[in-house]
């Protein structure tokens, strides 16, 4: 059986050269990119020639123009896209505050969860519709002091574990727990 190779990748060194060019010209429009690419090809003739030779030695049967076209397409689309993805990753990493330490998940107390369940049962038995929004509003109105006490308890747990205490996240945690309790009790 005679297998034929169909995909010929660039060498690591040549890939880095293309990547550097693509990174420098990531935001350039197509016509301007073509002009800059032609100039880049002129300045890197030896590297391109070496890469063409290497690919031909691997068994590529196409012309030099086809390899040059592959280089252009890779620089214009693949490496440019890779540059933009790298920029997005760096932006998201920079946007995460450095003081926030992630650690063990800190949950609500069992007593508070039991109180949620009882409140849900009482409201359903009272004939309220099974809408989480209405049930959650009733729960918060009836248990403001218990919620405040639970928040203080959670704050203490977060401080013990040296984790950042963010009140908005705690409010979301309480609401999400309530919704989860409703969905398990409704089923």
Question: What are its keywords?
Answer:
187 residues, rod-shaped, mainly alpha
Q: How would you describe what is shown here?
A:
The protein is mainly alpha-helical and 187 residues long. It has 2 domains: 12-95, no CATH class; 110-186, no CATH class. Helix content is 73%, strand content 0%. The chain has 8 helices and no strands. Helix 1 (12-24) packs across helix 4 (64-95) and helix 5 packs across helix 8 (167-186). The longest helix has 32 residues, at 64-95. The protein is rod-shaped and about 80 Å long. The mean pLDDT is 79.
Question: What's this model, at a glance?
Answer:
Helix content is 73%, strand content 0%.
Span between termini: 59 Å
**What is the string of SSEs from the N terminus onward?**
HHHHHHHH
Categorize the overall geometry: rod-shaped
Structural class: mainly alpha
Write down how many β-strands occur, each being a DSSP E stretch of 2 or more residues: 0
**Main sheet specs:** none
Q: Approximately how much beta-strand content do the residues carry?
A: under 5%
Q: Give the oligomeric state.
A: single chain
Number of domains: 2
Poorly predicted runs are none
Layout: helices, strands, pairs:
Elements: H1 12-24, H2 30-43, H3 45-57, H4 64-95, H5 110-125, H6 132-142, H7 144-160, H8 167-186
Helix pairs in contact: 1-4, 5-8
């Amino acid at each position: 059986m005679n297998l034929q190779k169909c995909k010929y990748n660039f060498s690591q060194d040549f890939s880095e050269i293309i990547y550097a060019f693509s990174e420098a010209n990531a935001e350039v429009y197509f016509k301007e990119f073509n002009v800059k690419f032609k100039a880049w090809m002129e300045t890197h003739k030896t590297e391109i020639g070496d890469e063409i030779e290497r690919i031909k030695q691997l068994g590529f049967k196409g012309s030099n123009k086809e390899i040059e076209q592959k280089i252009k397409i890779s620089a214009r689309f693949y490496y440019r896209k890779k540059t933009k993805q790298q920029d997005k990753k760096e932006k998201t990493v920079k946007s995460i505050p450095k003081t926030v330490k992630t650690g063990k998940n800190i949950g609500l107390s069992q007593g508070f969860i039991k109180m949620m369940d009882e409140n849900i049962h009482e409201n359903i038995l009272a004939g309220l519709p099974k809408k989480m929004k209405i049930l959650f509003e009733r729960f918060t109105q009836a248990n403001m002091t218990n919620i405040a006490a639970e928040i203080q308890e959670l704050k203490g747990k977060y401080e013990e574990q040296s984790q950042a205490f963010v009140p908005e996240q705690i409010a979301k945690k309480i609401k999400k727990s309530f919704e989860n309790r409703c969905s398990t009790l409704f089923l």
